[in-house]
Amino acid sequence: MIENFNVRKEIFEDTQYETLHFELTMDGKEYQGHYKDDEVNWFQMQPDQENHGMLLEDLEAEVRKRIKEWEDN
Q1: Nearest C-alpha neighbor of 7 from the set 33, 39, 28
Q2: Is-contact 20 10, C-beta < 8 A?
Q3: Mean pLDDT of the 3-25 span
Q4: Which is nearest to 28 in space by CA: 61, 52, 64, 60?
Q5: What contacts 24+ positions apart, CB below 8 Å, involve 57-63?
Q6: pLDDT, tens digit, for every residue of 17-68?
């Protein structure tokens, strides 16, 4: 499960390349990535390279949900 989730900043704000940079902590390990056009792209180390007991597809769905909540606020 995700322990901490934070949208750090918008990159290239107000341009066609605008994307969100997020970070999360899961099982004590920190992961970061970008989110744009409903697509999650992970930096290295990727969560699917570890055994967290959560499928990558489920984790990415949770990331999308939390980002949508962040955008609504």
Answers
A1: 33
A2: yes
A3: 83
A4: 52
A5: 59/2, 59/26, 62/2, 63/5, 63/22, 63/24, 63/33, 63/35
A6: 678 999 999 988 999 999 999 999 999 778 876 777 888 899 999 999 999 9
Measured between alpha carbons, how far is 69 from 30 in angstroms, rounded to an integer? Answer: 21
Half-sphere exposure of 68 (CA within 13 A, CB side): 10
Residue 59 buriedness (CB in 10 A; 0-12 / 13-18 / 19+): buried
Q: Write down the pTM of the prediction.
A: 0.82
Residue type, 9: K
d(CA 37, CA 48): 21
Look up residue 71 and give its two tokens: 């955008």
